[in-house]
Amino acid sequence: MKRFLSIIALAALSLVLAACGSSGEASGGDESGDGSKEITIGYFPNINHVAGMVAEEKDLYSETLPDGTTVKYQYFPDGSAFMTAIETGDIQGGLVGPGPAMNHFTSGAEINVVGAGSTGGTVIMARKDANIESPEDMKGKTFISPRVGCTHDVQFETMMKEEYGITSDRTGGEMKHVTGKPATYHSMFTTGNVDAATVPEPWASVIEEKGSGKVLVDTKDVAYGETLPAAVFVTSQDLVENKPDLVQSIVDGHKKATEFIQDNPAEAKEIAIKKIKEITDQELSASVIDNAWERINFTYEVDAEVLQEFANSSHDLEFLKEKPDLEGLVDTSFIE
């Protein structure tokens, strides 16, 4: 990556814009001016991606990558932009939701999931005064998700279809679906533009603290709420096949970050608050982070079977035209 992302002030609590220049080859990253390798890691400014924040703040990749390697970071507003950067070689690895990884893989992207970042963290919030007391009340209501067919959207729509028989207008159903950045959901609740939201943390806890909405369905009761990786660590098949030692070094750095979170939750929370402030210009309170943390399990372990079940749900909801086969997507050899 030869230029940094522009970070916009978030008057409306929006996330950063995605912008990236051309990088080096997908097989290894740029050569920096002194002849050393340059590796770029990507992640989102969400609590589910704290491993990326910790790795950056504690400079953990420098402990595992070969001497002379320069490590840079790139921040993304959504999974599509992240996956494009992986495919073009602008980044060599990083954290993304399982939905974008799965969708791009089934569309022919040569990528591998080599670990997880976390599980949990998706919450269904209802706007106060929207007259929504239970999921059955969602008929005729408008809900928002980050993107059509994203991880949080699939979790919500799977639950609504399987448990309540309610679907979105995308398939002729009774819920209206719109999309927007999670950091804006509180303001959209305040203005009454949407009635409910399928929200990644910490933005659900922001809504709770500010009082614009309430929990309709908590993490443990959302489809795949506690088993599905909320974030997976992705790299290219080219790197896995041709530079497995480099991939191992990258994954080892990610494992160090995850173990740091597990062993030092208080410091990890401070890092999350700091990095989210730097990236989004939104300062979250310690109480918001504490609340969000309770809904998340930070782990690098990944279960291929759960991802396949989730992919099947995406097909059932007509986000995917063909029934997906994720054989070859997950490679756990680097975390074993």
Automatic annotation (TrEMBL):
Signal peptide boundaries: 1-28
Keyword list, A-Z: Cell inner membrane, Cell membrane, Membrane, Signal, Transport
Domain of life of the organism encoding this protein: Bacteria
Cellular compartments per GO CC: periplasmic space; plasma membrane
Major location (coarse): membrane
GO function terms (MF aspect): ATPase-coupled transmembrane transporter activity
Cellular location(s): Cell inner membrane; Periplasm
Stated family: Belongs to the bacterial solute-binding protein SsuA/TauA family.
Protein name: NitT/TauT family transport system substrate-binding protein
Species of provenance: Virgibacillus salinus
InterPro entries linked: ABC_SsuA_sub-bd, NrtA/CpmA_ABC-bd_dom
Keyword 4Fe-4S annotated: no
